[in-house]
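User: Show me a protein chain along with its predicted structure.
Assistant: Here is one chain, sequence first, then structure tokens.
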Amino acid sequence: MRDLVSPLAGFRSPFGAPRGFNPARLVPSVAGRLAVFDPSRLSSLFQMSDGSTPVAAFGQPVGRLSDTSANGLHAVQASADLRPLYARLPQGGRRNMLPSNANTGAALGPLNAGGALSTGWSVVGIAQSAVSVVGFGTDRGAPYTDLAFNGTPSGTMEVIFAQPFLVPALPGQDWTASAHIQRIAGDNTGLSQVWIRTFAANAAGSNVVGGVAEGANTITTWQDEQHAATTRTNFPDGSAWARSILRFGVSGGAVNFTVRVRGVQLELGAAPTALQIVASPADITEPGRWSRFALLNDLSNDALAVTLPAATYTVATGSDAGVTITTGMVHGGGAYTLPGPQRLYGAVIIDRALTTRETAQVTGWLNARRP
């Protein structure tokens, strides 16, 4: 069965739900006491709580998630700053934890005069006037950024892909940073080393905990594209954040070169895996994999609420953690806030217990919408 879940080109996804099952066909104890929410149906998403301004792009706020049953029990949020975002995630879930590797926010020019790096990136060790974004785009399915360095470094130069406080990490974890790098113009004058680093930072964000992991020095080979990767295993006690950096050791004097950085990734695990493209936390894709669609909550105060009659309900939700079915939920009538895991892929609310067969069907329907 192929469920056409979005009219946006290329965003359709085959769901392996039980053949022919639609939770909107469940029969409640009292007519009208059934609500079905399916963020994969773009036509059910609106930016405003009154059902105006359809959602048309990932990262847009969702003020109304329409009930796809015939009962009109829509989930809404009147406050603009409390609305979750429309999001997509590749089947299999997120691995690339960088805030962006897709040139989100990038602009051509010197960094001190209108040029800008991808969200979360920065350059240190040389004046911002000496670094320019001279190109960006996509090559062989992977986003790239071309950075020109022309000036005298003040010390070791670094392209930082993950600023402090952006990629949470825990002691005992392994983290791997990877990127394709190539010197596409200039030469190695003033350079001694070129390598990728991965390290743990403490709660303050900037101080290294327990040393760094450094990849191979590519200074003699990076005129040809290199897939550079390095893993910091067993993050030590006190680790709070993962960081990844492209580092240039300097030998003195001015530098003049352009580097292409392509397909940057920072992920849990002891080896690099297939590239995921992160335009934003609400827009993550992976070439060759279907997307799943969700409401992305900020885990703080984002919420949608549906007005329900007084009754005892069964509430089934699909999130990154799995399918949760809560039975015997006594509701006195009025607003009921949808459970708020970080990503909500679907929900079913009905005023009675589900049969064993229905439980399996609803579970399958929700799992088919999860990554």
